[in-house]
């Protein structure tokens, strides 16, 4: 599935089952909530915290939830994520095409 197809599928789902998009402000709050849920799973899986009884190691589900709300925001604000991502990749390539290769923290695995 392409990013464009994902945007179209989310739009169809909203119009079929969701009645309408939440407001942009509500979706921004929901996106923040979903990022927090993703952070919780990462903190428990890769950080120093442990999972509480009953908590799931659902990294994939939390990432998909973040993507869903981000796509909703893009759709309702008229952002073409395919174009925006392509432009972002080009910008990062121009700006950082040597930066990370010359970073001893990365090339030496953070060790001197």
Characterization of this structure:
Helix 1 packs across helix 3 (59-77) and helix 2 (24-45) packs antiparallel against helix 3 (59-77). It contains five helices and no strands. It has 112 residues and is mainly α. The protein is 68% helix and 0% strand. The chain has two domains: 3-79, Helix Hairpins (Orthogonal Bundle), CATH 1.10.287; 80-112, no CATH class. The radius of gyration is 18 Å and the shape is flat. The model has no long low-confidence stretch (mean pLDDT 94). It starts with a helix and ends in a 5-residue tail after the last helix.
* C-alpha-based Rg, rounded: 18 Å
Query: DSSP helix count?
Result: 5
CATH architectural category of the largest domain:
Orthogonal Bundle
Structural class: mainly alpha
Order of helices and strands: HHHHH
Please identify the top-level CATH class of the largest domain: Mainly Alpha
Can you tell me the CATH topology of the largest domain? Answer: Helix Hairpins
Which keywords apply here?
single chain, 112 residues, mainly alpha, Helix Hairpins, 5 helices
Provide a brief overview of the structure.
With 112 residues, the chain is mainly α. It is built from five helices and no strands.
Strands, helices and their partners?
Elements: H1 3-17, H2 24-45, H3 59-77, H4 81-96, H5 104-107
Helix pairs in contact: 1-3, 2-3
């Amino acid at each position: 599935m392409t990013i464009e197809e994902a945007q179209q599928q989310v739009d169809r789902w909203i119009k079929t089952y969701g009645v309408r998009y939440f407001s942009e402000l509500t979706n921004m709050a929901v996106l923040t909530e979903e990022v927090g849920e993703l952070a919780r799973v990462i903190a428990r899986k890769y950080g120093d915290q442990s999972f509480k009884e009953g908590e799931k190691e659902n990294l994939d589900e939390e990432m998909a939830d973040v993507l869903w709300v981000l796509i909703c925001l893009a759709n309702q604000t008229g952002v073409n994520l395919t174009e925006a991502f392509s432009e972002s990749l080009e910008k990062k390539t121009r700006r950082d095409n040597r930066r990370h290769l010359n970073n001893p923290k990365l090339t030496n695995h953070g060790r001197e």
